[in-house]
Amino acid sequence: MTRIWVVRHGQSMLNAAERIQGWSDAPLTPTGREQAATRGLDFAAAGIRFDAAFSGDGMRHRETAAGLLAAAGSELAAVPDPRWRELSFGALEGMHIRRFSRLMEDHADAEMPFIATLDALAATDPFAEAPAAVAVRAIEALHDAAEAGSEVLVVTSGITIMSLLHTLGGAPDTRSGPANLSVSTIRRHENAWIVDRAADPDPIAV
Asked: Which residue pairs from 59-62 have beta carbons closer than 8 angstroms and sit at least 24 positions apart in sequence?
């Protein structure tokens, strides 16, 4: 059995400023570094030993993975992979989250307003990505990660996680996305993916 631990990055400076990051990037805040270390200690206490680790190629992803792995007592270095980047917001990169909330009001009647809003952005901006497109690259990366060992760490971003889990049938629809350092677990069983945990903010429970 292969188990992929998909973790959202720690609080970044743009998170703290309540700005949506997308492909924009920023380093972790002191809080973000503390979050990463705390989660690493949780993994160590649960006896999780990673065979491999991957992350998005942003600063916030790489810093989170490095801090988490160090605190977990692992000597691994996460391999950065652009397929684990956040969704691109195109011209709206860096928007304040209040503006995105107003955009969501136009899709309040949709079954999943968050996804519908992102789809609408992608339909009008050639540089913005639709969640389904993000899921395609994330699933491709997931397959490659599953070949690396039985316990694999992936550090990525919130909407990438939501898009991936939504496609696999395990994502809640929320307005704010997964919390920093929340944990999702995905198992590969034969030819199927099974979501055991979807963006759980609580410490690791095996």
From this structure: 59/12, 59/25, 59/26, 59/27, 59/28, 60/9, 60/10, 60/12, 60/21, 60/25, 60/26, 60/27, 60/28, 60/32, 60/157, 61/9, 61/155, 61/156, 61/157
